[in-house]
Specification:
alpha/beta; single chain; 6 helices; 218 residues; two-stranded antiparallel ribbon
């Protein structure tokens, strides 16, 4: 295994493989695409959240009372706007009390560098785990910027979850943020296209989720 892959979890579940393929298909419409993003976030969330801390509480069951585990703390989901919003409900299906912050970034079409237009986190975000979500990790610029903002807010327990991850994006995060574990449904080695997109992924997720898909990014 390459050293830059040591903090990457690539899912090999058949349902995840099946759904990512349908996401890539140009015949998949906006409604189905959005549903696939949500479903994949739920499936991936089981693994990404497996180390959440627990505490024991005393409960009264129908036949007896006993101590049983519950989550010790809430976690925070931080979508990178706008595409990352599509993954939030999938994770909140697993834990409806999860808090949600937002990082608003867009990519300059000329330089491909991320630009920030919005940043808002829960007041107690530093007390628990933070999962940044975005359907695609392509150039890695937006993910890098989002992680920087969240670290500056005082967070240290950070994970990044995406559906498609490029070799270039993974290498960048491994270099800039070796403490952040990456979870992805599909890892795609090789170069990006001239627009900075992953050629064998699903196009612009924000456009496809919101029905504003442009053929120039096909």
């Amino acid at each position: 295994m390459e050293d830059y892959m040591k903090n990457v979890t690539v899912f090999d579940h058949p349902l995840i493989a099946h759904k990512t393929t349908h996401m890539c298909d140009v015949n998949t419409g906006s409604k189905e695409y959005s549903e696939l993003v949500k479903e994949l976030a739920t499936l991936m969330g089981y693994e990404a959240l497996k180390d959440l801390p627990l505490k024991q509480v005393h409960i009264q069951a129908p036949l007896a009372d006993f101590d049983s585990p519950v989550l010790a703390e809430d976690f925070t989901i931080v979508p990178i706007l706008r595409a990352g919003l599509g993954m939030v409900d999938g994770l909140r299906m697993l834990c409806p009390t999860a808090k949600v912050g937002h990082v608003g970034l867009y990519r300059d079409e000329e330089t491909l560098e991320p630009k920030t237009y919005y940043f808002k986190l829960p007041v107690d975000v530093t007390e628990g785990q933070v999962i940044i979500v975005d359907p695609a990790l392509a150039t890695g610029g937006s993910a890098d910027a989002a992680i920087d903002f969240i670290k500056k807010a005082g967070c240290r327990n950070i994970k990044f979850m995406c559906i498609f991850a490029s070799e270039i994006g993974v290498k960048l995060l491994a270099e800039k943020h070796p403490d952040v574990h990456i979870y992805c449904a599909r890892y795609i080695p090789g170069e990006l296209d001239e627009h900075g997109y992953i050629p064998t992924a699903a196009g612009d997720a924000g456009d496809r989720i919101n029905g504003t898909y442009s053929l120039k990014h096909k």
